[in-house]
Amino acid sequence: MSKPLIIFGAGKISQAISYYFERDSEYDIIAYVVDDAFVKNADFLEKPLIALSEVETRFPANKYSVFVAVGYQGINQLRASKYNHFKALGYTFATYVSPYVKGNFTLGGNSIIMDQVALQPCAKLGNNVIVWGGTMVGHHAIIEDHCWLTGGCLIGGVTTLGKGTFVGLGATIGNEITIGEQCMVGASVLITKSIPDKTVLIAPSTESHRLNSDQFTKMSSCFRVQSL
Amino acid sequence: MEKINHILADTLKIPFERTKENLGMDDVDHWDSLSHMNLIVAIEDAFGIELSGDDIAEMTTFNAIRTTISKYI
Which of A67, A144, B27, B68 is 20 to 30 A removed from A32 (C-alpha atoms)? Predict the structure, then answer.
């Protein structure tokens, strides 16, 4: 028998996470919840959309689980505050692990492991951790509460990510490194040394080639159009 | 032209004698899009010119290179 679930959030992140819960979880999404000021429609994804102030009355904590599915605004402070709000109300949090992800790891509440994630043995992931597809978390790594690991990032073995840290697309963090709390690690950043709390690291975007694509095509053996 | 031939030989790693032929990108093993840009930069440095994107795209044979450079100097 499926468990009734309410999801906080009614945006793209909520829609993406809903896909996994609906696809193959033990939960049945009953309704979506947002802050009162954001209730613009009566429903979202064909389910009732209700105000946060009404949630305890309509979907009490003793009958419904919750999943906070919003973005990383405030470097995950928004997600942390909503998680703490529902925790204070006594709700239990849902957790989702893709059935394609196997391994010996631990995972807290309100956390999600999407498809094609590699979790090595003894990795420990806390509460409210979002792990997008393609991420690799090394053995004995510790991912503290409220972290956000974006697709393709690599976390080395025995490395610790402090609470609320954001790791961008394709970033690489070496082994036995300590990343402070609430750091912002941008896409494709490489980290080989520990960094303190609230550090921001951004890799420069690749410079444009001198030639435009029409010009490049003419002199590239790979892209040149061969006469038939 | 001697100056161009030295650049071609050094950048494309071919014997100097072969620079006197009209070889194209498909004839030279090391002449790919990356070495082409190295060649362009070497030419620009040697002659103190800045080639346009369209010219760079057309300079895919030794003769085309010589013709293009002659427009700038």
Answer: A144
From A157's Cα to the closest Cα of chain B, the distance in A is 36
Nearest alpha-carbon partner for B19 in B30, B9, B11: B9
Q: Mean pLDDT over all residues of chain B?
A: 94
* Residue A219 burial by Cβ neighbours in a 10 Å radius (0-12, 13-18, 19+): buried
ipTM value of the model? 0.81
Residues of chain A with pLDDT under 70: 227-228
Give the domain B2-72 fold. 1.10.1200
Q: Looking at the structure, tell me whether residues A7 and A100 fall in a common domain.
A: no
Residue B1: is its pLDDT beyond 90?
Answer: no
A4-32 per-position pLDDT tens digit: 999 999 999 999 999 999 999 999 999 99
A45 DSSP assignment:
T
What is the rounded radius of gyration, in angstroms, for the C-alpha atoms of chain A? Answer: 20
How many Cβ pairs within 8 Å bridge chains A and B?
A: 34
In a shared domain, residues A36 and A77: yes
Beta bridge partners of A66: A6, A93
Contact yes or no for B56 and A222 at CB 8 A: no
Q: Are strands A130-131 and A112-113 parallel, antiparallel or unpaired?
A: parallel
Q: Are residues A158 and A68 in the same domain?
A: no
| For A218, nearest residue in chain B (alpha carbons) | B57
In chain A, residues with a C-beta closer than 8 Å to the C-beta of B53 are: 210-212, 215
